[in-house]
Amino acid sequence: SNGFWLLILLPWSCSRAVPSVWAPLPPPAIIRSPVQLLKPTTDLVFKLLLQRDQGFPLLRSMLDCVICPASPIETIELLNPDIDRDYPVDKPISLNVRVRLKNLTRVDIEMQSQVTAQTASRFLYYWARDYGHGLQRGDDYSVLVPVVSVIWLAEDLLASQQFHSVFHLSEDTTRERFSTDIEFQPLALKKLHFLS
């Protein structure tokens, strides 16, 4: 079971020391009474895990390991996860966890327990709405900041056997990047066993 994946997360790619908050739970034989555990793949549990404790140590550690910034993330500003509609007919969205880093990059962290044919389109829509959020008439496009989407998937979306993939917008032949403002980082929980 991947029930405690978030608590023992990512020593596989993180070159920095893993904090004690990542320590694994004791084996089930040590637990004295039966306990019904909440699944971290549930949106509410996922949000609560990442946003618990002052300074968000679990969230910071996870982002350090996943997006691998040039220097460790020291502070995180938690943002309103609701993206306002521009028009009453626009589809409203509420992201799982939305943060701003010190370098102004925004990160949307999502947990997706079910994958459908529209999942990729849905996350592209989330990214686009977050990217343009706050841009007003007359604003210069330089006010736009990079947005990274970190997407935890409980089901397979990609054919690749990789647990962690990173996508950018680049030219097919030369791989020259069109923009550094767009980045998707899906993590496939079902592929964790390929790491061992």
The best one-word shape is: globular
Side by side, the strands of the main sheet go 1-4-5-6-8-7
Mean pLDDT across residues: 84
Please outline the major beta sheet.
Answer: 6 strands, mixed
Helix and strand content put the structural class at alpha/beta
Radius of gyration: 18 Å
N-end to C-end Cα span: 15 Å
Helices, by number, come to: 3
Sheet-strand content, in percent, reads 15-25%
Runs with pLDDT <50, length 5+? 1-13, 15-24
What is the strand tally? 8
Order of helices and strands: HHEEEEEHEEE
Please bin the fraction of helical residues.
10-25%
Question: Which features would summarize this protein structure in a list?
Answer:
196 residues, alpha/beta, six-stranded mixed sheet, two-stranded antiparallel sheet, 3 helices, 17% helix
Concise synopsis of the structure shown:
The chain is 17% helix and 22% strand. It is α/β, with parallel strands linked by helices.
Helix-strand blueprint:
Elements: H1 43-51, H2 57-67, E1 76-79, E2 82-83, E3 93-94, E4 97-101, E5 106-112, H3 119-132, E6 147-153, E7 167-170, E8 177-188
Please describe what this structure looks like.
This protein starts with 42 loop residues before the first helix and ends in an 8-residue tail after the last strand. The longest helix has 14 residues, at 119-132. With 196 residues, it is α/β, with parallel strands linked by helices. The protein is built from 3 helices and 8 strands; from the N terminus they run ααβββββαβββ.
